[in-house]
Amino acid sequence: MTEVLQVDPTDPKRESIARAAECLRGGGLVAFPTETVYGLGAHALDRRALQRVFAAKERPAHDPLIVHVAVIDDIEPLVIDIPRIVPELAARFWPGPLTLVLRRSERVPDEVTAGLDTVAIRVPSHPIAQALLRSAQLAIAAPSANRFSRPSPTRAAHVLADLADRIDMILDGGPTTVGLESTVVDLTQQPPMVLRPGAIDADALRAVIPEVAFRSGPAAAGTVGYHVIAGFSWVDSFLNASMLLGGMGPVGDLPNDSAKLFASVFALYSGLLFLVAAGLMLAPVFHRVLHRFHWEDQ
User: Hey, how many other C-beta atoms are within 10 angstroms of the C-beta on 11?
Assistant: First the structure.
């Protein structure tokens, strides 16, 4: 059974954080809030725990995971090279919703990288995520805490609806503040390449990396796990419709409105699933009723 612990993000209680950290060190799975969405955390160097992540999410093994660390110094054991631009990017965007793809070290399991020679790393800013990382004293691999291909969760209730009894613990810190997944930048390419647009916009990136490029067209092999999106036009249209149906009004600025956008999408998605399930359950009843009327008309 999945245990849910209430945690105040303004004052994360040491006892709750310590219990979650102990769970992670023992190979357990803990969902926790980041500033973007809720993540499903596992010890990033524990292969058995990582395999549990893929099983819980029903996630294809070829999708790499993002590793979360507490501070920039924690990336050193995970990579073989730190490009000179990393400290500048870290000073500007870390802690925060920027993920950097770097050359992996031998310590990083293939389950994290999908067998690639790179690893994606970020430093989250959410106080609960930071408290958990510091208490556990380990790197945490944490994709979004939802089953594969479903909406990313911005509330603990979304996680519980999707992963109940599949994971060990949820730290409920309330709704996430950004609600849009992190921007993923590959620093192993020249020029550096944005693999997934996200909470850090193009202008902010170009202020640090003027030559940064943006992928267009289909996702390259190994980048599916970063939810690569070529453009936001179709996303905007769908989310505008979701917002209007949910009574929240139209979308203004996608990153700023995204927390309630994702909550609205999740609610609509759950409603559709309910309608489909109800239809399947009631289909035999409707069939018998219609068959009866058809017979009587004869």
Answer: 9
**225 has pLDDT over 70:** no
How many structural domains compose the chain? 2
Q: What CATH number should be reported for the domain holding residue 181?
A: 3.90.870.10
116: tokens are 């690639």
Residues 180 and 253 occupy one common structural domain: no
Full domain range(s) for residue 135: 3-185
What would you report as the CA-atom Rg of the chain, rounded to the nearest whole angstrom?
Answer: 21
Q: 221 in a domain, yes or no?
A: no
Confidence of residue 284 (pLDDT cuts 50, 70, 90): low
Residue with tokens 């380990």: 138
Closest to 143 (Cα-Cα) out of 233, 36, 229: 36
Distance, CA of 111 to CA of 121 (rounded, Å): 14
Residue 125 shares a structural domain with residue 13:
yes
Pair type for strands 118-122 and 66-68: parallel
Contact (CB, 8 A) for 118 and 3: no
Sequence-ordered alpha helix ranges (H) in the chain: 14-25, 47-57, 85-93, 110-113, 127-136, 156-163, 202-206, 233-245, 254-297
Same domain for 153 and 21: yes
Q: What is the pLDDT of residue 226?
A: 56
What pLDDT shows up at residue 282?
A: 61
Encoded tokens for 79: 């990579």
Per DSSP, 105 falls in state P
pTM greater than 0.85 (yes/no)? no
